[in-house]
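Quick log. Single chain, no ligands specified.
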Amino acid sequence: MKENTITIELSDANKLFATEDPDCAFLFLHVKAVGSFSLPRAVSDLGIGEERIKKAAGKLKKLGLLEEDKPTVVGMPEYTAEDIARRKDSDSDFAGLLRHTEKTFGRTVTFSDMKLLLGMLDHYALPHEICAMLITFVTDNYRKANGEGKIPPIRSVEKEARSWGERGIISIEAAEEYIASQKRKAEKLHEIASLLQIKGRALSKTEGEYIAKWIDFGFPAEAIAVAYDRTVVRTGRLTWKYMDSIICNWHSANLHTPEEINAGDRRYGSSAGNASAQEENEADKYKKLLELL
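-> predicted structure:
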């Protein structure tokens, strides 16, 4: 077999054809190429949104073309003080990573820090230069959200290290691409937060999840602005669940731009028209609820 060749059984190919779903084909080939299924990596590599990946994965699992997700081993090895001291003396990469972390954090690393950093090298198999980029990335993001001089919790660093390991981010190029994509996503989140008149504070976890979902659905800021306007007009305030119902209705009707949404509004009796009517019904429910509060 030639290098970089993917072999597909005829029976599997027939199952894929039967789905008539390009996302299933993309995901199947992706898993064949990388050797296993990881939702974060599939979203990053294929660029078609988490919801579409999940739907495709569900179809492939039913057809027996994708194994059930295996739980990720998250436990770090138990290192002793002697283990740490020995590696500091014998491993210049580890010693350099400790110095980089101290400089980035602005303080001396603790024993817990050292155990995590060694685990990033050994357990998550991240090269030392990738670990250094990760430490800088996590610290910069944490300080943007919480203020200069703040140090990220060690668990947030471990969570990011686990994510990078699962995504296979082991080269400088891959790390730079991932960091750039996260920066673009953060800029979109900030743009939409400003559009929703959320200023002077960080988004809550739930607010961020709503906006991230809308971005993954493929809605530009202009379309989200339309949903926000309708939400405020119909309920008198920013009501996240109601606004989400509007956007999900549009997504189900394959309406994602302001032009498509306006055209859908004019097609009374179509799925888009029914969605608009449903929005009105939902608005009445929310108004009644707000009167009781």
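The chain has three domains: 10-62, 81-170, 199-292.
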